[in-house]
Amino acid sequence: MEPSRLKERPAADRRMIKFVLMVNRQGQTRLSRYYHSVELSRRAALEADVVRYCLSRKKDQCSFVEYKDFKVVYRQYAALYIVVGITDSENELSIYELVHNFVEVLDKYFSRVSVYFSLQSELDIMFNLDRVHIILDEMIQNGHIVETNKSRILAPLTAIDKMVES
Question: What end-to-end distance do the CA atoms of the chain give, in Å?
Fold first, then answer.
């Protein structure tokens, strides 16, 4: 096909989440999910750089920052930070609220996780990483938000837990 005949991608396709990270204050990654191709050799450096940047910011500074060719939205919940890399055209406030919704879903599922993450909740996340990934995958697919309803997000885990109990 001739380049002149190629259509520009719709704006909705340009808006997306590039990655989600959950890290502790020491900068240790507890969860990472990428929605675009990043070589494994580059992931560690990217994570370290982004996390270092977020951890160095003061609490009174904005939680949205431009970083290289994308934006970073992050929220701190006591000992843990949730960091989301997004394209320039993605809505920062919607991602900021998505992060809080994610924490509320974790809180509902684990019941010990609260908006004030503790060591116990960090351990819940580390030892139930498969469950956390299921929750995240119910909310975000291919870098796009697909679900925000807490009950619908938790439905697959509820079904799995019922099967395990019986």
Answer: 56
Segment (H or E) for 29? strand 29-34
Chain-centroid distance of CA 31 in Å reads: 8
Token pair recorded at residue 73:
């939205």
> Model confidence over 40-88: pLDDT tens digits?
889 999 999 999 988 888 888 899 999 888 999 999 987 889 999 999 9
Q: Domain-by-domain residue ranges, the chain? A: 3-165
Q: Which residue has the tokens 């990217």?
A: 46
CATH number 3.30.450.60 is the correct assignment for the domain at 3-165: yes
pTM: 0.85
Going by their DSSP bridges, the two strands 140-141 and 144-145 should be labelled as antiparallel
User: What are the distances in angstroms from CA 16 to CA 13, 88, 115, 133?
Assistant: 7, 9, 25, 18
Characterise 134 by phi-psi region: left (phi > 0), alpha (psi -120 to 50), beta (else). Answer: alpha
d(CA 166, CA 103): 28
When pLDDT is cut at 50, 70 and 90, the band that residue 10 belongs to is: low
Q: What are 17-33's pLDDT values in tens digits?
A: 999 999 998 999 999 99
Please tell me the chain's helix, strand, coil percentages from 3-state DSSP, rounded to the nearest 5.
45, 20, 30
